[in-house]
Automatic annotation (TrEMBL), chains A, B:
Positions annotated to bind diphosphate: G12
Function per UniProt: Catalyzes the phosphorylation of D-fructose 6-phosphate, the first committing step of glycolysis. Uses inorganic phosphate (PPi) as phosphoryl donor instead of ATP like common ATP-dependent phosphofructokinases (ATP-PFKs), which renders the reaction reversible, and can thus function both in glycolysis and gluconeogenesis. Consistently, PPi-PFK can replace the enzymes of both the forward (ATP-PFK) and reverse (fructose-bisphosphatase (FBPase)) reactions.
Cofactor(s) demanded: Mg(2+)
Residue ranges occupied by any Phosphofructokinase domain in the UniProt entry: 8-299
Top-level taxon of the source organism: Bacteria
Site (Important for catalytic activity and substrate specificity): D114
Alphabetized GO MF terms: 6-phosphofructokinase activity; diphosphate-fructose-6-phosphate 1-phosphotransferase activity; metal ion binding
Annotated compartments: Cytoplasm
Name of the protein in its database record: Pyrophosphate--fructose 6-phosphate 1-phosphotransferase
NCBIfam families: PRK14072.1
Amino acid sequence: MAKNAFYAQSGGVTSVINASACGVIETARANAGKIGTVYAGRNGIIGALTEDLIDTSKESDADIAALRHTPAGAFGSCRYKMKSLEDNRREYERLIEVFKAHDIGYFFYNGGGDSADTCHKVSQISESLGFPIQAIHVPKTVDNDLPITDNCPGFGSVAKYIAVSTREASFDVNSMALTSTKVFVLEVMGRHAGWIAAAGGLAADADNDIPVIIIFPEVPFEQEKFLAAVKAKVDSHGYCTVVVSEGAHWQDGTFLADQGTRDAFGHAQLGGAAPVVANMVKDAHGYKFHWAVADYLQRAARHLASKTDVDQAYALGKAGVEMALAGENAIMPTVVRTSDAPYAWEIGKAPLADVANVEKMMPKEFISEDGFGITEACRTYLLPLIGGEDYPPYKDGMPVFVTLKNVAVDKKLPEFKM
Amino acid sequence: MAKNAFYAQSGGVTSVINASACGVIETARANAGKIGTVYAGRNGIIGALTEDLIDTSKESDADIAALRHTPAGAFGSCRYKMKSLEDNRREYERLIEVFKAHDIGYFFYNGGGDSADTCHKVSQISESLGFPIQAIHVPKTVDNDLPITDNCPGFGSVAKYIAVSTREASFDVNSMALTSTKVFVLEVMGRHAGWIAAAGGLAADADNDIPVIIIFPEVPFEQEKFLAAVKAKVDSHGYCTVVVSEGAHWQDGTFLADQGTRDAFGHAQLGGAAPVVANMVKDAHGYKFHWAVADYLQRAARHLASKTDVDQAYALGKAGVEMALAGENAIMPTVVRTSDAPYAWEIGKAPLADVANVEKMMPKEFISEDGFGITEACRTYLLPLIGGEDYPPYKDGMPVFVTLKNVAVDKKLPEFKM
């Protein structure tokens, strides 16, 4: 009898994580004799721990297909990092119990670095407990910080959104700069790595002479140097666009966004890096400014997803199931780049032991010498990842996203206190 | 000999104002025997005052056609409100001088309320000075506050961007709410009128049960009532999305964004309404929050323009030229809605005397009784305006926008001190 599968979404969601879910479920359905029902965890791994499973077989083929163009996590995700096996053996044992109770032999975990680690541990404990679970990690993270794989699904679409938005806003500012805004600041995600900020650099190219300054989390902020760079751009182009990472920080590690200001009640005044940078420019040069904080808009923007990203997200979910059926365990399917231009890629795989707890940072050679821009090497890396458009269907002017029924599976085990 | 035309873009640019420019120039080219060269003002009306004219005949047909999908102001715009005729006769007389020097008989002014007023005055003074100028105002404003016309080009695309972004971000928050963000706050434009904020209400519909709370500038902010409404949404849906207008204000008129906080140097701490509202919710209920400020991204977002908006922007530019050729003066072509569903519209016209200095506010019956949502009447009004998609062409993953040559016309007059 074919074993069932468990699928869960982990951590911050993206505009294409459901495309991976689609790849997993459609591929399982296409192999109905070899793999049973795909159960999804409601709200990620918490659904497994609490035995709150969703029966995806209750969803129509059309609704599963619609996952491909629906952003966010259709089954719910969670921020819940399982502790180490030593500190928290109880939770890992509970997972195995739940898998046993529902005859689950495959564990597909769709997430970033932490979930790769959890996935790896599940595979290890299943062996030691004598209940075989094939654990496959399907990569996902807008932070693009997983090792080995060419890139991480979710990142390409955020990069496209930031690149396009930076170009559009720059056209706007350019046309108004004589009498109005001269400096526009856009704050983007990426607390530890500047991959997303780097995408702002794609706004400019041979046909678009756009003055973009990027503040990377990799480069400790030097105020005087930055202010001089802004002035040089305004002098040469009439305006300047600044893309600042939320993780931009001073030499001592303090975030730019953390100003230590207090409101009337003495509460810490939370702001973003963008208004801080914008006010800094105003104080120094008197330029009129505007600022935006893209926040969730960037990672939810399915309306502007990269086709490459959607294709890869789906392909990695599909490959995960195929690898499981081929007997693989404790691995992550990866994207292997075989050519930059034209972009070509194929599916590879990495042992989870090599993935867990390794963060891929931006190479130094991707940041220009002055610290405020991207190099040609970076452009060559990034450009294919934003390639192609993959628009969702629209009805009455609005994108049509699916909301699944998410029917619960009957529980078989006693309650588990988390 | 056919008279030349002058065209200028005025005030804050939009993602479709160039579509109006395209309509003006293409229609003028199609009537080459009856209308001469279209000169554009570099940086709007300032280009007329300084005799800094752009010869649009130097642009290829392909480049002019590309204006239809290029955001912002291709000739430059400006924030420059001409004073009243009494206070500033000199500037109006200078305009006429420049028009005379370049044999200009048509004045197409593409802007909002202020420019309608200027346009009207130019028509009046041309009469009194005995140099005939037909002055036509082509409407444009994301604020949607011009009277008589069904809507204003620029607004529909911003509305679509806000509606789509609100839906996408809500899907994101919904899928994470159990362990992470429960309240997402999106700040949108519209200092005086809540038209743009209202568009956030379109995120929810019969197929998408999304808990949206809107903070309108039309409704003085009541903190306790707002906090109770947020709690009710989080209790019922697990999360809540707040769309707050930058013009949201307290009973006494103070903007929510104005907190009177100071940084370490005693400078006013400029923030947005979004972080203020988000922190308020956190303080009262302890919910984890995220916030975004869309700022220029919303009005520059040509990648998500409404087809209706693009079509109308073009049609109004075209109609402006046709009306001028038919001998009209001191008028604004308008959109006349003839049916809600299916949406049908035709071109009408309004005398500038009826347009200038009249602001169209949101009708009271468009805001729900609790003050935090939109009514069915509002939905019926808004939905057609975001209808249809009109994607720009892409190359290598990025939208292809045109940058014109903008060749200057030789000056014939002495310099004018502004």
